[in-house]
Design brief:
Strand content: 15-25%
Number of strands: 19
Strand order of the largest sheet: 3-2-4-5-7-6
Largest sheet: 6 strands, parallel
Oligomer: single chain
Bound molecules: adenosine-5'-diphosphate, magnesium ion
CATH topology of the largest domain: Rossmann fold
Number of domains: 3
């Protein structure tokens, strides 16, 4: 040690002090965290200021749930944990919805919340915003940690990061009692206590016999199908996905957030022949997708004759196997490693998927596309979904780099099938829960993380959950164009209260609302569009200018249906109907 003759103790302490604020910022920066999404307040106000001063980008939202949803989607887009920062109890609870959402979707996120004094909280003596946050967070996320001592900040942050991104990614809660931030320690010792996470999400290579087993199953197929899920999009193994699909020649079905992994116009895309391929396929290769409600749990009449489908499943989480049906060939590992192993094992002489089957899928797909095409051209006013989305479809085709955010009921279901995607991770939507309220958080994070223009296609109800964030979009001058599909209500805008009271029906909103004026109120551009031509003009202008824009798109209140495509999940009473 070149310490000029000092004793060890003297050499390792500098006489200068650091504190919890600085250590937490340094620990995040050391691990390449660049952005924090949050809402300031007690006890983390000064932390946010100092983080900004230290070169982190700190984006302040109007509500923690939206900041959390931004962090969650940042995790999906970057493979790094999205960071959400909140105040104690109520702010923490607001952020928790997003943390649970991230966990459910297998996206890495860390919710960092300030908390009140442990000694008082644990004796339930009634502190300001008293809450045992750690205990509450635990069942709702992948891991939860609390840091009590400044010298543990390095380890605490490292654990949180590794827990969020390794294996199946998910949400992590990190509890920061307010008095931790003020704790001081020697600066040199503090620096030494920080931990850089090495190889946070190690490659997970499948076992060779598992690969052989899968190859045998795939070889036996007469009607094979690949299902690409958002885990495959998350994995950023885009070349391996393409190589596997094209080497095998097997038709593929993208789940909604996997759209664009290969362009929806790819010859082997079976998106528009979804019913046919689910029903008829005999071997299905699941790539980062789960057999949950979105795929009828892999059974039932959607899947054809009982027992007629064999599954190969690629997933990083071993416990996902057999979750709903038997998996004939489980492949546990990361998407990139597993697909590369499969493609290598297939080699050059592997027989392509049977032509008869591939042609049948293509014929069905072409017929469905031809059937839909004329409806997308209509210029009706007020607009129906096909007309409005037909216009937006052309815009995404012309601007394939733009990121599409999409939520709503009918607005979601129609947009998913009508708007083709051309590049990976460009479609951000409601995810596994089918949750409403992720729109503005997703739009903001998409713009911040990628710098690309964002088009947010929102049902009027869905928009309402996070609509106040238009101020945030204006404040940071983000290139976000929001299109509100305004049909005066939830599902449809035509419901009438027939119960003899003065209140409006439970599913309608103020008629002819001007959502565009909300954006104008904060200095952005607000436009009303009554037909698809006007809509296309306004969106193109927004995308060219990059200015925050909200377009109030007038949709026929009669056009939608109750609960969109999932009406069967909505119980309806027959007894109470008079
Ligand atoms: P979708 O809704 O598109 O079907 P899901 O969210 O249901 O997708 O499934 C995603 C799956 O991908 C999860 O089971 C998750 O464990 C898995 N996964 C996430 N990241 C990876 C990865 N890097 N490698 C392999 N599997 C992954
Ligand atoms: Mg509506």
């Amino acid at each position: 040690m070149a310490d000029g003759g000092k004793t060890n103790v003297e050499a390792e302490t500098s006489g200068n002090l650091t504190d919890g604020f600085h250590l937490l910022i340094d620990a995040l920066k050391l691990n390449d965290v660049e952005t924090i999404y949050g809402v300031p307040g007690i006890p983390i106000t000064d932390f946010g200021r100092m983080a900004q001063a230290a070169g982190l980008r700190v984006l302040s939202f109007r509500h923690e749930q939206n900041a959390g949803n931004a962090a969650a989607i940042a995790g999906f887009l970057t493979k790094k944990p999205g960071i959400c920062l909140t105040v104690s109890a109520p702010g923490f609870l607001n952020g928790l919805t997003a943390l649970a959402h991230a966990t459910t979707n297998c996206w890495p996120m860390i919710l960092i919340s300030g908390s009140s004094e442990r000694e008082i909280v644990d004796l339930m003596q009634g502190d300001y915003e008293e809450m045992d946050q750690l205990a509450i967070a635990k069942p709702l996320c992948k891991a939860a940690y609390r840091i009590l001592h400044a010298q543990d900040i390095g380890i605490g942050v490292a654990r949180a990061i590794r827990a969020a991104v390794s294996g199946r990614p998910g949400g992590v809660y990190l509890d920061i009692p307010g008095n931790l931030l003020g704790q001081v320690m020697d600066e040199v010792e503090g620096a030494k206590s920080l931990v850089k996470v090495i190889d946070a999400a190690p490659a997970q290579i499948p076992a060779p016999d598992a690969v052989d087993r899968a190859i045998d199953v795939i070889k036996s197929a007469k009607k094979p199908l690949i299902i690409l899920g958002k885990g495959a999009a998350y994995a950023q193994a885009d070349d391996a996905v393409r190589a596997f699909v094209e080497t095998s020649g097997i038709p593929y079905l993208p789940m909604s957030m996997a759209k664009g992994l290969l362009p929806d116009t790819h010859d082997l895309s079976a998106g528009p022949a979804r019913s046919l391929v689910l029903k008829e396929s005999d071997v299905v290769i699941m790539v980062g997708a789960r057999l949950n409600w979105l795929l009828s749990h892999g059974k039932g009449k959607q899947w054809g004759e009982p027992g007629s489908t064999k599954f190969v499943q690629i997933d990083i989480e071993p416990r996902e196997m057999d979750s709903n049906v038997e998996i004939a060939a489980p492949l546990v590992g990361d998407i990139g490693s597993v697909l590369t192993a499969l493609t290598d094992a297939m080699g050059k002489n592997f027989p392509k998927a049977p032509t008869e089957w591939v042609d049948a899928v293509k014929a069905k797909k072409d017929a469905n596309i031809a059937k839909m095409a004329p409806t997308l051209q209509n210029n009706a006013s007020p607009m129906n979904y096909a007309g409005a989305l037909g216009a937006l479809r052309t815009i995404i085709k012309e601007r394939p780099d733009a990121i599409l955010v999409n939520e709503g009921a009918n607005t979601l279901d129609f947009a998913r099938s009508i708007i083709d995607m051309y590049k990976p991770r460009k479609r951000l939507d409601v995810g596994t829960w089918g949750v409403m309220g992720v729109g503005m958080g997703s739009a903001i994070a998409a713009a911040v993380e990628t710098g690309l223009p964002v088009l947010a296609v929102e049902g009027d109800s869905a928009f309402g959950f996070s609509g106040m964030e238009v101020e945030t979009i204006c404040r940071y001058n983000l290139p976000v164009c929001i299109v509100v599909f305004n049909n005066n209500g939830i599902y449809r805008g035509t419901d009438v209260n027939t119960n003899g009271t003065d209140d409006p029906a439970t599913t309608v909103f103020v008629e002819n609302s001007r959502y565009d004026q909300m954006m104008a109120a904060f200095g952005g551009v607000g436009v009303q569009a009554e037909n698809p031509d006007e809509l296309a003009r306004a969106v193109n202008a927004a995308m060219d200018s990059g200015k925050p824009t909200l377009i109030n798109a007038i949709i026929d209140p009669k056009a939608g249906k109750e609960s969109g495509n999932i009406g069967s999940l909505n119980p309806v009473s027959v007894v109470s109907k008079k």
